[in-house]
Design goal:
about 220 residues, Rna Polymerase Sigma Factor, Chain: A, Arc Repressor Mutant, subunit A, 2 domains, two-stranded antiparallel ribbon, about 55% helix, about 5% strand, disordered N terminus
């Protein structure tokens, strides 16, 4: 459910934009030492090193931003700002292995700041439910059955509590974030992520069965 902003890019050291797209340069075997070297090279203006960092963490940043239910334009602006903050602080990152957590925390703070400046309510864990947002428009489905099924799944997802929707959106980032990164993104205790995730998935499964089993002419009864 996490999507990349179409046509967006990220500010790079020395100017210019790094495109948002498939993570073609992400290597899952990269070690902490590799990240340290990439950070050092990026701080010296190495565009390829910067691009590899973006490839690795753009999915996480975008998932965090979109979990705050901003529109696409505002989400893209916050994502850009998050990467700009990294450009400004490349020389200050002392623990390269925690770069994902740093970006997640920065993205969350930028989201909260942006929502407050816009006079919008900042969602909290105490809110059990928000007014469901309309799903993004997709291309017309070639199959009415598939369209009804997808609509039912979105309805099941939107019927979850805000906390569950936000957690599941972040967990679905590509590549998958670590629990430390999720904890930083949502200001959530590390030990509670697994149990909450399990409960949220259980509720989603239950809600999915209920919505999918509803006939279109009886949707209001579901």
């Amino acid at each position: 459910m996490a999507e990349a902003p179409p046509g967006a890019g990220h500010p790079a050291p020395g100017g210019g934009l790094v495109r948002t797209g498939p993570c073609c340069r992400y290597d899952p075997a990269m070690t902490d030492e590799d990240f340290a070297e990439l950070l050092r090279a990026a701080s010296l203006g190495d565009q390829d090193a910067w691009g590899r960092l973006v490839d690795r963490f753009s999915g996480l940043v975008w998932a965090v931003v979109r979990s705050f239910r901003m529109d696409a334009e505002a989400a893209a602006d916050v994502s850009q700002t998050t990467w700009l903050r990294l450009v400004e602080h490349l020389d200050d990152i002392r623990e390269p292995e925690r770069l994902g957590s740093w970006l997640a925390t920065t993205a969350r703070r930028e989201c909260i700041r942006t929502l407050r400046l816009a006079g919008q309510q900042v969602p909290t864990d105490q809110e059990s439910r928000l007014e469901p947002a309309a799903p993004a428009e997709d291309e017309v489905s070639v199959s009415l059955l598939r369209d009804e099924r997808d609509t039912a799944l979105w309805q099941a997802f939107e019927s979850l509590s805000y906390r569950c929707r936000q957690l599941l959106r972040v967990l679905m980032a590509d590549p998958p974030p670590s629990y430390a990164e999720v904890s930083a993104a949502l200001a959530m205790p590390l030990g509670s992520i697994g149990p909450v995730r399990g409960r949220c998935l259980g509720r989603f499964a239950t809600n999915s069965r209920r919505w999918v089993s509803c006939r279109p002419d009886r949707a209001l009864d579901c």
